[in-house]
From TrEMBL:
Cofactor note: Binds 1 Fe cation per subunit.
Family: Belongs to the pirin family.
Cofactor(s), by name: Fe cation
Ranges for domain Pirin N-terminal: 6-119
Residue stretches making up the Quercetin 2,3-dioxygenase C-terminal cupin domain: 146-231
Keywords: Iron, Metal-binding
Record-linked Pfam families: Pirin, Pirin_C_2
Keyword Transcription set for record: no
Single GO MF descriptor: metal ion binding
Protein name: Pirin family protein
KW DNA repair (keyword) present: no
Binding locations of Fe cation: H57, H59, H101, E103
Length: 244
């Protein structure tokens, strides 16, 4: 079963300097039917004005990754990391026992458009960690490239959860295929453009919950960029229990 939710059905927030669309409940937006899926808790589709951003704030016990679509995001954190995140980069912050960070639009004249995604970790109270990798653009051109995994396969960043995240870009006659292992769920997010998932057209911002399916095919892309989450078969996230 593939259940598609249109982009326009997402929660919306307009803070002036920040315009955000929430796939799942976040901040002032709450929908009991949209409280995450499997271990996927948050997908925020953010557009930030030049020079603006999120000042220093803390997180703990969450796997948080940023995926920039346009512009440049400046990151700083209490681990001493300072970096710039551009399209093609994958950034993963494991908040663990606690981390303080800030994210700002690195440009004074152009907006930054990025996805911030939260995944519940397998374990709580783990050491905080930061990873960033620039993905070779050919690896996701007309195919799905593994960008996050629990074991670091294919040079993916290592995440503390039984989840695998893929990114792909498709246009025209390009097609990509993903075979899901037995007894797995998946979530598909269309980051930009349009593409057909198993023959059903999806547009930018649309999402799809996938259950009891083993084959996902992406065809007829028009400047499409997609993220695919291979997930445990749980309906909603359950917060991790850790070791003290």
């Amino acid at each position: 079963m593939i259940s598609v939710r249109a982009a326009a059905q997402r929660g919306q927030a307009d803070h002036g300097w920040l315009r955000s669309a929430h796939t799942f409940s976040f901040g002032s937006y709450f929908d009991p039917e949209q409280s995450g899926f499997s271990d996927l808790l948050v997908i925020n589709d953010d557009r930030v004005d030049p020079g603006m951003g999120f000042g220093s704030h803390s997180h703990r016990d969450m796997e948080i990754f940023s995926y920039v679509l346009e512009g440049e995001l400046a990151h700083k954190d209490s681990l001493g990391n300072g970096s710039s995140i551009k399209p093609g980069d994958v950034q993963l912050m494991s908040a663990g026992t606690g981390i303080v960070h800030s994210e700002f639009n690195a440009s004074q004249n152009a907006k930054v458009h990025f996805l911030q995604i939260w995944i519940v970790p397998a374990r709580a109270n783990q050491p905080a960690n930061y990873q960033q990798h620039s993905l070779d653009p050919t690896k996701k051109r007309g195919r799905l490239a593994l960008i996050l995994s629990p074991d670091g396969d294919e040079q993916s960043l290592v995440i503390d959860q039984d989840v695998r995240v893929y990114a792909g870009e498709l246009d025209g006659y390009e097609a990509a295929h993903l075979k899901l292992p037995p007894n797995r769920y998946a979530y598909v997010h269309i980051a930009r453009g349009s593409v057909a998932l198993n023959g059903r057209k999806m547009e930018a911002g649309d999402g799809a919950r996938v259950m009891d399916e083993t084959d996902l095919e992406f065809t007829n892309g028009r400047d499409a960029e997609v993220l695919v989450f291979d997930l445990r078969p749980n309906m909603q996230p359950q917060m991790a229990r850790g070791r003290s």
